[in-house]
Amino acid sequence: MPLDLHAALAARGEVPDIWADPKRLPSGLLAVRPFEMGMLPAPLIPWVSDIVGRMQVPAEFVAVPAIIGAGALIGRKIGIRPQEETDWHETPNLWGAVIGRPGVIKSPAMQEGLKPINRLQAEARRQFAQQNTVYEASALERELRGDARKQALKNRFKLNPKADASDLAQDDDPKPTLKRYVANDSSYQSLGELLIENQNGILVHRDEIMSLLRNLDREDNVEARGFYLTGWNGTDDYTFDRIIRGKNLHVPSLTISVIGSTQPGKIREYISSAIRGGASDDGMIQRFSLMVWPDIAPDYTEQDRPTDGSARHSAYQVFDWLDNLTAPKVGARVDPLDERRPYLRFDSQGLGLFREWRQGHEKRLRSGDLHPALESHLAKYRKLVPVLALIHHLCSRGNGSVPEMSVLAALAWAEYLESHAHRIYFSAIDNSADAAREIIRRLRSGDLPPRFGAREILRKGWSGLANKGAVADALDLLEDHHWVQAVDIPSGMKGGRPTVAYIANPKGLR
User: What is the pTM of this model?
Assistant: First the structure.
């Protein structure tokens, strides 16, 4: 049908046969699976339950930081090799975020979940202060010893320039270094230097995670972004070669864990940008596998009772044990060709369960049925599931191969987290649906003619339709759901680009 006749029929409200019935636009938040305490290692359940009960917060606000903190403590000490024969190796460093409106007590709840690792950091600072005080007090002694050693060397070499001086070349007491578990606000160069001194890995905790992500999106921070992306792997070396900081500053197996929080509107905007190919469209956000957006219970019961000291003590003992973990303690294997990465594998039942899950998971990823952004997110579950099984096993004080029970817990986490991923990514798509509904409203009210262009919408400056990307996303969604049809309009100039016009489906204007 010629374009002008098509538009004329649409303007008169006549419905050409080519129009399909408009499909309902997406709306509302998707439901998510409830959190099950049984997904946690048994020694942590009473502790998390006590915090959740006293604070009246979603369990996720405490459990997610706790699990990420546990993985950060394990770090490079023990990895998981999910297959029976290959050297596929995953380090248990995880990235996550809790999402909730302001005022739902996200930050205090997260701090409770991070208390065990923050307690270890406080103790490390106390020990460092004591050691540094002793070191500074012996400064004069070290200086005199150094002078005496130099004089002795001179005297010996005067007699024999080739004399053995190994007994005089002993170093002074090394300067104490602070063991770091957590970093909050570090440049990537400073974080790299911390990781050189703390090679097991570091947990980056940012209360507002968007501040970190937006900073990494900047064009002048492309190196920092690459640094963090490498740190998620937990298996790749990283070397700084900078004129100011020096060459060959080497971080073996750069390992970074990340935890933070944010608000629904901010994560929607960020993921919307990633979906439409913005600066954040490189898989960064998809690495936040433990990203949760729970429902807030409508009921509230005032709780004024003491902490369950026994539950807290048992949980803290688990984190202390992870801090002092060694490969021999848990029967970890060492690859003779890669002795830096001790590892565990699944037992026969656990391996069978993992293989069955992965077979179905890989088939879904290859089906083409998932939104590309969500597909990329779920692809990271190849690391998530075996790593969660390892964390569950070690937090349960397990020894040797990772058993079926820990794999079952990890698979329960995967189902639970996938429901949150669908809610989070769908909410970003639903942002476009809100804008699309506004366009439909304007068409029905006559504020927008049945034939229009994107520029006409932008000039109006309507709410939710004030930028080019938002308008383009809304129009794409309307076309996919048969509310409008895009047509090319020749420019009239030889070699000129055609413009795009949109014609409203008359069935949707009634």
Answer: 0.81
